[in-house]
Amino acid sequence: MSHSGTPQSPEDFDSRLKRARGEEEDAEGGGGEGLAGSGIGAALRMGMELVSALAVGVGIGWLLDHWLETTPWFLIVFFFIGAAAGILNIYRAAKGFGLAPGYGSDGLSKKD
Asked: In the chain, what are the domain boundaries?
């Protein structure tokens, strides 16, 4: 910034602020340049949340069944536990959309 000695008008400040915010929004929106902020990125994240929770649940159930020779009971039980965990993860991820990082829906910080 230059220090020219003449103060700038509030209208000039508002126009510069709107221009800066517009450039910032264009950089974030990007028109599909980054998957993390797009709808496809959110859908991929939610899909991976569900698949990974199911895979962990089925894996634990399969290992317990082979170790304790109780085929297929632990597999069935842990399939449903994994499905419930995946759905809970999707709910938590979807609930947080539109919030600033570190803040809850009430606008208060989640630090403590």
From this structure: 52-96
